[in-house]
Amino acid sequence: MVSHLNAASCPLLVVKVGSSLLVEPDGRVRRGWIETLVADIAARHSAGQRIIIVSSGAIALGARRLGLEKGGRASLSDAQASASVGQIILSGLWAGLLEAKGLTAAQMLVTLDDLEDRRRYLNIAATLDRLLGAGAVPVINENDSVATQEIRFGDNDRLAARVAQAAGASEVVLLSDVDGLYDRNPADPEAQIVPQVKRIDGKIRAMVAGGSSSGMGSGGMESKLDAADIATRAGIGLAIASGLRDHPLAALDADAAATWFAPREGANARKAWLGGRLTVKGRILVDAGAVSALGNGSSLLPAGAVSVQGDFRRGDVVDVVGPDGDVLARGLSEYDAAEALLICGKRSGELAAILGTVPRSVLVHRDQLVLL
Ligand code: GLU
Question: Which domain-ending residue is among 237, 257, 273?
């Protein structure tokens, strides 16, 4: 696995650092450990690798400063207040420690919406590109103090995967208090770490018991698998590794235990962005004929649709659901939900009589569709 992470095979690496690695349970910053991570980052930087840090810890730090219960997660307003107190501490910490190694920190706080909206997503990509080109080290967190419940990532695992996608990274390393995915509950003495995952299927999902072990972050293994799914679909590898040791990146180079998710072949950038989107506005239910047509690379025609659910507009993201209830594809709808409903099951020749005009012959065009 060693070759995965060098500057040649991985010119741009995203490192996500979980809250429990940054903050002691009593609220003190784990400065000594962070220094060892920054030393690893500086060594990679001088070897030509570019690094983006996705740092959690704002809520955990701020809650302890404010004396709020449940680590600042008792309510959304507690989390938002904690984040705004913690973020300023966190930024100062990263800026200072990177500076001590001759590196310039660049802070970006983003919301889920920023990455779901295509224009804002491309804008973030351009800013990251410019920062990295100028030799800075972006330090990214969710803008927790402004994001409301409905539009929050809530965990930095998926945020890291989306950022990696926007930046065109080769690999994501999620550092937390677990050293990888276990094949069963890690408390079971028989549990074994899964060193490599080629595809995230039902078997892999079933291994996850759920829940954050430290209780400090909001991640847990489930959101790490979601992150791995987003990243690998975009052709980016992802590793889950322990940050409980000093110099965690150097340890990975020395083959420390970890779970490596292999990138999927053949994802194009726009389709990867689509597949990794988290806000889906509706569903189009389709028949078996449409399932096989989609599998052969066709667009979704009105004739193959059985029903629609949700209140989506033209251009919104919808899931395409087969007769067995499985979500088989995700794409941008060519029609508003109300119109789509009217033309479900109708042949192309019938559309003009129903709609008055036939603006578009497909419900979801294959260029705007990704099979899941
Ligand atoms: N954005 C949150 C924070 O800075 C962390 C989210 C997570 O636990 O992954 O505190």
Answer: 273
